[in-house]
């Protein structure tokens, strides 16, 4: 359900005086149960980038994806009225992307596999800098599915590369093998050189 | 963690294998596979994160990456890396194929003086197939002694069973790291029993069924024996026996595991034999359209049991086709879930010419091998895509063009299979009894 849908439902519920009570609802239609299980529909949290820009995002969305944020909210260190979560190692551009990813995957988790994969591919259509920053942000926030996606992409980039090329990319100047050992490696994997 | 072989001092691997990508490998990845990677950015990556990238690599690429530097080379022996690997590496629904040689080795067993020269190791070559990239690799199983044949597979381990009639010895092998673990031999003598294997990170279950040798020359399907060991300390070393239903004719070979049960095809008339591991009980399930099936095989997909077979209904106006049925949750009813597109079936039937076909499934993939040819089809259940598989470049071809039959298993190559550590303390007392 999009944010707009849920807002409409929320107003509809209020108008007809059907209130969520202790997580349960009076009527038993599936959308309403979903609403109740998700808690208050529009509870938001504030994330603050390294550039001191504030992003408001549904608590629901971030709690589902980021282990770090989930822990912060669970242990009560985040106060909804006043706090914002400072993310000093994530810049605004990257934070916006991360929020985008989490929001899409929360709202579209029932989509079919191919559509989600296509969206992910489009999402990761960024330059090296962007990919690196996303990796660092996802790692810091501990967003497992985004991490898997990024590592999957990087491993595809590495998979076909020659040994020398990999050394260049990771700036490995001293590989540590003796010439005999390198020769042995070459013999073991003759098709790779 | 147990089960790892430490070879810090030497670069030589304990086993030999060759990985090579065929020229016709199709890339199905939607990402650019060889983009320029800026070293100014990627060299900043902390070691932990580099390790994580390496943990994501499929085994052939991982072994290539080991040649990059000594630190990467040693990761295979690093417990912390392997723990990370077991946590993050994605599921890979690959396959491994062997040249079908069971009948040959039975004939030759008297001629085999036990010497394992390099010539005989040819028989133990496995052909690893990656359905995502349509790529073939070759793995040699030089550690497996002669007189054994591949029988089943689960979670990165391959199960080999002794060919000779009598109590059966079972070996669990991880060819990627060259580990071989022996199970205590089965108490009852058998000829060619069906073997079921299921392995989880904390538990190993093996069931050996049928072909009981009630005398040196009489074979009957009477019983099954099961082996269980788990990390919680529970074990049953072939102590669990069960009776097979009367008059069943198990198809010798591997049993398929799905949701706590082993399944096996039963011939004439076709039905499915099921073994519930926990309750140690066998029962029969009727096969769908059982009088009109040809070359039925059982597969597992997403935890459900599937049956795939050619359907020939000569009396009615039903077009011949290849269909897939799914066993429903009730455990007795089948629902048709897939059918080969008719045009493709015409092509397929022409190539197959009534010789039959063999199927093996892993995850969302089904491989259909046409007997007597090197042609095979790949079906992706989730994307509903049928593709012809490029022929394996490593297979030997006889002079008159006849190709050895390929015998396939669902196999996921894994850098570590620590669960075999559970068996280490079991096997020692039994080694003394081996002739």
Automatic annotation (TrEMBL), chain A:
Q: Nucleotide-binding: is it a keyword of this entry?
A: no
Give UniProt keywords alphabetically.
Ubl conjugation pathway
This protein's pathway reads:
Protein modification; protein ubiquitination
Secretion signal span: none
Q: Which SUPFAM superfamilies match?
A: POZ domain, Skp1 dimerisation domain-like
What the entry lists under InterPro entries is as follows: SKP1, SKP1-like, SKP1-like_dim_sf, SKP1/BTB/POZ_sf, Skp1_comp_dimer, Skp1_comp_POZ
Entry annotated with the keyword Transcription: no
A single GO BP: protein ubiquitination
Record Pfam families? Skp1, Skp1_POZ
Family in the record? Belongs to the SKP1 family.
The name on file for this protein is SKP1-like protein 11
Q: Which organism is it from?
A: Arachis duranensis (Wild peanut)
Lineage here is: Eukaryota, Viridiplantae, Streptophyta, Embryophyta, Tracheophyta
TrEMBL record, chain B:
Residues of the signal peptide: none
Q: Where is the F-box domain?
A: 39-88
Q: What PANTHER family does the database record attribute to this sequence?
A: BNACNNG10540D PROTEIN, F-BOX DOMAIN-CONTAINING PROTEIN
Name recorded for this polypeptide: Protein UNUSUAL FLORAL ORGANS
Gene name for this UniProt entry? LOC107481975
């Amino acid at each position: 359900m999009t944010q707009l849908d849920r807002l409409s439902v929320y107003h509809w519920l209020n108008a007809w005086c059907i209130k969520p009570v202790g997580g349960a609802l009076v009527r038993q239609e599936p959308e309403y149960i979903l609403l109740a299980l998700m808690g208050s529909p529009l509870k938001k949290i504030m994330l603050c980038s390294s550039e001191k820009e504030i992003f408001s995002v549904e608590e629901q969305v971030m709690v589902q994806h980021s282990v770090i944020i989930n822990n912060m909210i669970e242990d009560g260190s985040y106060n909804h009225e006043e706090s914002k979560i400072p993310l000093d190692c994530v810049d605004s551009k990257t934070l916006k992307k991360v929020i985008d990813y989490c929001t899409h995957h929360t709202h579209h988790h029932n989509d079919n596999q191919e559509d989600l994969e296509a969206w992910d591919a489009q999402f990761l259509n960024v330059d090296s800098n962007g990919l690196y920053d996303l990796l660092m942000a996802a790692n810091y926030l501990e967003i497992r599915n985004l991490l898997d996606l990024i590592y999957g992409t990087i491993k595809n980039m590495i998979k076909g590369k020659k040994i020398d090329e990999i050394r260049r990319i990771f700036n490995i100047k001293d590989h540590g093998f003796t010439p005999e050992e390198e020769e042995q490696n070459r013999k073991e994997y003759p098709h790779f050189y | 963690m147990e089960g790892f072989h430490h070879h810090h001092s030497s670069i030589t691997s304990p086993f030999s294998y060759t990985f090579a990508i065929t020229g016709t490998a199709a890339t199905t990845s939607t990402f650019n596979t060889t983009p320029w990677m800026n070293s100014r950015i990627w060299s900043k990556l902390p070691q932990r994160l580099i390790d994580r990238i390496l943990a994501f690599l499929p085994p052939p690429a991982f072994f290539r990456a080991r040649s990059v530097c000594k630190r990467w080379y040693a990761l295979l022996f690093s417990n912390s890396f392997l723990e990370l690997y077991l946590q993050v590496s994605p599921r890979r629904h690959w396959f491994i194929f062997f040249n079908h040689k069971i009948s040959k080795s039975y004939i030759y067993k008297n001629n085999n003086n036990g010497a394992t020269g390099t010539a005989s190791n040819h028989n133990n070559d496995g052909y690893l197939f990656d359905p995502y990239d349509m790529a073939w690799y070759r793995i040699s199983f030089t550690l497996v002694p002669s007189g054994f044949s591949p029988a089943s597979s689960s979670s990165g381990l391959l199960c080999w069973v002794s060919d000779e009639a009598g109590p059966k010895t079972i070996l669990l092998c991880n060819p990627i790291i060259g580990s071989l673990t022996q199970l205590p031999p089965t108490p009852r003598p058998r000829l060619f029993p069906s073997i079921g294997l299921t392995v989880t990170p904390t538990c190993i279950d093996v069931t050996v069924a049928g072909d009981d040798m009630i005398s040196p020359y009489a074979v009957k399907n009477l019983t099954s024996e099961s082996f269980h060991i788990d990390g919680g300390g529970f074990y049953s070393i072939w102590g669990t026996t069960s009776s097979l239903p009367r008059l069943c004719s198990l198809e010798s070979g591997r049993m398929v595991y799905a949701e706590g049960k082993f399944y096996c095809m039963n011939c004439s008339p076709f039905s499915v034999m099921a073994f519930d591991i926990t309750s140690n009980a066998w029962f029969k399930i009727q096969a769908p359209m059982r009088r009109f099936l040809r070359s039925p095989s059982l597969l597992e997909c997403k935890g459900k049991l599937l049956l795939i077979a050619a359907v020939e209904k000569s009396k009615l106006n039903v077009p011949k086709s290849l269909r897939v049925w799914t066993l429903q949750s009730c455990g007795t009813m089948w629902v048709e879930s897939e059918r080969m597109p008719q045009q493709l079936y015409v092509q397929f039937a022409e190539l197959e010419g009534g010789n039959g076909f063999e199927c093996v499934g892993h995850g969302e993939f089904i491989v259909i091998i046409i007997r007597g040819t090197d042609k095979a089809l790949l079906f992706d259940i989730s994307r509903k895509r049928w593709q012809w598989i490029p022929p394996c470049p490593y297979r030997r071809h006889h002079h008159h063009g006849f190709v050895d039959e390929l015998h396939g298993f669902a196999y996921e190559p894994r850098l570590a299979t620590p669960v075999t550590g559970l068996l280490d303390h079991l096997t020692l007392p039994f080694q003394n009894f081996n002739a």
